[in-house]
Amino acid sequence: MPNPVPLHGPDYKADPYPLYRRMREAGPVHRVEFPSGIHAWLVTGYQAAHATLNDPRLGKNHALGNDNWRRRASIMPEPQHSQLQVHLLHQDPPKHTAMRRLVLDAFAPRRVESLRPRLQELADALVDELPATGGADPVAGFAAHYPFRVLAEVIGLPAELAARFDRDWGKVVQPVGPRDPGRPAYEARLRGLQTYIAEVVARKREDHRAPGWDEREDLLGRLVAAHDTGGLSREELDSIVFQLLVAGQEPVTNQITTMVITLLRHPEQLAELRAGLDEPGRLARAVEELLRHDAAFELTTWRFFAEDSDLFGTTVPVGDSVIASLCAANRDDEQFPEADRLDLDRTPNAHLAFGHGIHYCPGAALARAELQIAVGTLLARLPGLRPATAPGDGLDELAWIPAVLARGVNRLPVVYDRRD
Q1: Domain segments of the chain: what residues?
Q2: Which value, to the nearest 10 degrees, does the dihedral of the CA atoms of residues 252, 255, 257, 261 take?
Q3: DSSP state of 139
Q4: Do residues 295 and 325 make contact, with C-beta atoms less than 8 angstroms apart?
Q5: Given this model, what pLDDT does residue 392 score?
Q6: Of the candidates 298, 361, 307, which has an alpha carbon nearest to the alpha carbon of residue 329?
Q7: What's the family (predicted)?
Q8: Which helix (H) or strand (E) holds 195?
Q9: Residues whose CB falls within 8 Å of the CB of residue 350, separated by 6 or more in sequence, listed in order
Q10: Which residues contact 229 (CB under 8 A, 6 or more apart)?
Q11: What residues contact residue 8 under an 8 Å CB cut-off, 6+ apart?
Q12: What superfamily would CATH give domain 5-416?
């Protein structure tokens, strides 16, 4: 078996693309190692990743993982693993089909379009709180809050509960091994999040039983009602709520940061985009290219074969994990001419930033609307947006989050001429 390629460390997180290029050139499948010694088979090219995401032989249920994978990769301890990890990302048909059907209406493109004025209000309210001139951090002041405020309205999370959500709970998806010094804090986050989910479920049970309840505007209430009528187990209900609260907002927060960083690194294109924000379709095309150029959801979650199987000429043992690199696929020159070049008017642009196949992100339409509004609002209302220049604040000195599957930063110092 080949020695695994390490996929961790600050240099890799800051810029994984040179490594991905070398891996693509060497072949489509590679044995890789993540933090805590987790091993997987990584698929890198566009066509190979596209085929992998649509391969019916590969399942997502964690029960398919072998003992070696379970020992290393099932970092979340029991009982939380059994109670919070049976959501959509870890299900296969027919269970996946039934669970997905419960959430699709809330994120339907028509509904998202009807919400755009409200999403714009939420974005403007956050920008209004930034300093009028000088510098700020668009992560702490905007990106860390905007996706969750949007999500709360879309899924029907009451304002008083939304105000109590601790973003630190989102770190439960970042691996902390059993012997890591940070393990106690990790497990405390899990317990805090579980307590919060229980409160959300109890409150939404009261809501959906009240006269005049409107299920069309209350996804959380619909999920609780599905549990109460036998359509979901308690573990499935809690897991979907967990997925909504964490996966429904943290990737968008990270994607806003990667988009802003990319534009700051291309000031001429930033200026051109700002000048053309009123041109029909310009911002939407730019967001698609920014998604392709540096996707915040860098890697897919685990997939497994039920028996020893061939994957593009490589034998993958039963129960070993298979992951597709969405970022590597999106920089494949065979699919995207001059793939490393940022072209905000690139078309067609069939990137894989939201995945593909039956596990294609159900919230993609909402994420696109959020990203278009976020980028457009920051550019329009913060003229002269540019990186801060104090020592330690440059774009090459950013500290990227150590998450296995995601790209983003928690701090991004910038300056601008004024706040419009």
Answers
A1: 5-416
A2: -160
A3: I
A4: no
A5: 65
A6: 298
A7: Belongs to the cytochrome P450 family.
A8: helix 183-208
A9: 335
A10: none
A11: 33, 34, 35, 402, 404
A12: Cytochrome P450 (1.10.630.10)
